[in-house]
Fold these 4 entries.
Entry 1:
Amino acid sequence: MKKFLTALFGLTALAAMLPAASSLTRETVITHLDSCEAILQEIQGNAKTAIPADILHRAKGLVIVNQFQAGFILGIKDGYAVAMVRRPNGKWSVPAFLKAGELSFGLQAGGKSITAVYVLMDDDTARLLLKNRMNLGAEAKAVAGIRAAEREALSKTLPGDANVLVYSTTEGFYLGAAVKTGYMSPSEESNRLFYNTNHRMPELLFSDWVTPPEEARYLMNYVTRLTQ
């Protein structure tokens, strides 16, 4: 019982460290989108972290993740993500919003920001985004991707069955390492507020039923330029 109460206290304390789960507003959702744009720009703007052009050219989907991790006995990752997929006609979808989080047990302490881009390399992996809850590390083969600066220097190739390549602003990922991505799920409230529609992930990602708001066009245009 004592151990249970200690764990419960630790979980409560961690929850207090994270941003308050107040009701979303459209302005908050736009801020999330802007921060995901900035993450992609930061990764691509640094030779030490940039995704190679040939990887982007073959990409079938992108998930840009912004998380906060805190831990003391229990560990919590909480945050949000934006996903886009490349449709059969070669055009990119509107950005769709996701929740991103993870709960883990173990002796740990501290907190950090986790920002990353998951590059989805095949259509089957991109369609995992339609699930109510997914873990790209468990349901797909996620590995740390070769960076643009390493492309010429490294002769080691990625595992042949890798279909999610992970790029982070954190230096220290190493080639071939398995990556725990945590769970993600659609943020229906964020999508409803941003697009003023009740359309869900299938319609947002794989149809032309939704007209992108002006706030979404910069990211869409930027991704299109990167992946041509």
Note: The chain has one domain: 2-227.
Entry 2:
Amino acid sequence: MIYQRFVPEGWNQENKKYSLDELKSAQSTNSVLQGKIESVDNNHNVHINLGNGIKGIIPNKELGQMLKENEYIQFKVNNINAESNICTLSRKAVKDESLSWAINELKSGDIVDGIVRNIKPYGAFVEIGGGSSGLLYINDISVARMKSPEERLYIGQKIKVKIKEIDKENKKFYLSYKDLLGSWEDNIKDFSEGSVVKGIVKECTKNQDGIFIELKPNLVGLCEYKDGLEYGKEVNVRIKRIIPDKKKIKLTLESC
């Protein structure tokens, strides 16, 4: 596990209250703080209750993206008006710095904490810190076929992800989840030839010579073809043969 300079917003759901001295110290040290959005006004400025009668405002131009009430947000202190007890904050400064960290300091193979922020048909966007998110393609979620990432993930889910690829030129990075679900050798330890287990139908081959059955999120086997079996159906299968050198499992249907 690498040192994670930035954690995802809300990873620790702490809505800390700050004193003026703490805010002044954070401003002088360029520190990252976290708060909870109290409201968003008509001009899309974010308002945060910093505690002790102090109000924080993140102008829309310092936001980086639209957020909603009650969401946790990270920020830096730009300006403090001690007379009015109003602080001007910047989330954009945190996001820019965290993106630079992700692009320039992380490397392929690093493992980081993440929170699923958005799900699309082709994959999920996972924040790994400071508001910066990477793309987790659907093929990198599981070795088994999926029709939707929502079969494995949900918005707000905390997961660990591996940095798969970093595109420094376009400031993008790509993630893998399936690489952390255990190797074929790790997962097969829970199974033995002759045992009957439950599985989920994942894919019927086009020439109808077999059906792929998911036994675990990162482990699939092949059984004989049978009409009427649909994607997602749970079935009982017997493990007929385990072939370690080919990383294959042959199954037979017990019941449907």
Note: DSSP finds three helices and 15 strands in the chain.
Entry 3:
Amino acid sequence: MLAVNLRSGGNRNTLDCLVRRCRDHDPSVIAFSEFRANATGARLREAMIAAGYPHQGGSFEHAGNGVLIASTVAFPYVVNPFGLSGDEYPNAVVEARFGEFAIYAVYLPGQDRKRPHLRCLIAAAARANERNASAVAIGDFNSGRNATDIEINLGTQRLRDEFSTADLYAELERHWTEAWLYLHPNATEFSWYPFRTDRSVVQRNGWRLDKAFVSRALLPRLRSAEYDHGFRTEGLTDHSALIVDLDVERVS
């Protein structure tokens, strides 16, 4: 599966290139964060159908930032599976089911606004572990580890910046495993940099925001997790894409 942040709903001028780059990875499921139900969003959905992803679910009734899931196979889905209220950014999570396999596609809002979502994901992770269920949460979490997921903090004893929800993020890590970090325990990469029109400028203020968490039952079937930084460096969006390979059977 692949996850990529569209940056404010996507750019109509680069949308076709973004779709082609997604298709080149040949994922069975794609999770788009910062999807918007507007004209650009409609064009993206049409382009995904043409690319072989006719089955879609997401926050289609919401004008602001939300989530789109596109798949090669049909699936039931639920927007706001945790039942958050209208002032708690309920379109930040979409749950899709592929047989017994669950995907929580996320675009968590900034700062403390994501605390309800993280609490709900922690509860969902605990339940999945109790049932030995296969599940993954994937997308833009806008949170992480302060010491390693914020570039300006590397090699410093005093944090120069912090995630306001690092405490809940750490609790989620105690239930589920963050896929990329599990497979690259000694590596450092960053998936988001502030957008620049001049991409030749060297940037040292990266953040690793785009991640996938897998349940304990699913962890033995994790094969790979890699970033495609070309999405960002080629100006298709301001985020790198995350590609996660799981040994799960496709469900039609």
Note: Helices lie at 15-24, 39-50, 115-131, 166-175, 179-183, 230-233.
Entry 4:
Amino acid sequence: MDETQVAEEGLGLAEAAGLTEQAHEASFNLLSSFWHYFQNDLISSVPITICSFLIIAVIIERTLFYNNNNRDISRFIHSLQGQLEKGNLEAAQMLSTQLNSVTGEVAEEGIRLLAVQKEDFSRAYDITVAIVIRKLQRYLPILATVGAVAPFLGLFGTVSGVIKALFHMSQGAEGASLAMIGEISNALIATGYGLAIAIISVVAYNLFGNIVKRYGDDFMLLKLLFMSFVSVQFNVGSAPNNNPSQASEAFPDFLK
């Protein structure tokens, strides 16, 4: 075997390994491959893209909502306890209103219940908390749904891409096997796309779920605080509404 033949064979191995300048120019481009997948597999790419826009919108909306309602609950409970110990329901309700958050709304309703409905305070307070928890969990089911569905949408796109690749190979045309490899490569992008969206959805859902759980713990602290004063006879006349029946009708905005 002469040096020319060895060089030619070596060149073939280099091309196969992607070490030549021509092979480098034909290297994998993720963006172009993704765009090729998006254009040629609209059945899966469009639904996954819609899911991505949904989770982006939900993540932004929930992040803003939770940040706007983030308060120092320990300091608030300490101040609220001081006013309740003095029997000053009006000042306690003023503190809750000034908190300007869902925690303040629950505390404000708890004070109202403490003044007008002591016998069944626990059940009435739990109803209030359940309503607010729904408000905190709004749109989170979208994240859970996308996290469960997106991988299957990506898998569906991969299956359809492999079917197309096998069809091209069955034609027996020249270079069909190379075309099949390219089709399969693009088809696998669908699975990666779906998994990426699902991972983001699941992570966001778990993070927001922990935030909701923290709010639930805060509401439980407020309940324990109110329950310790259930047996105390407050002067209802010091509350904003002197008539207990009128006070029971003064529902906060989130209960209307």
Note: The chain has one domain: 30-247.
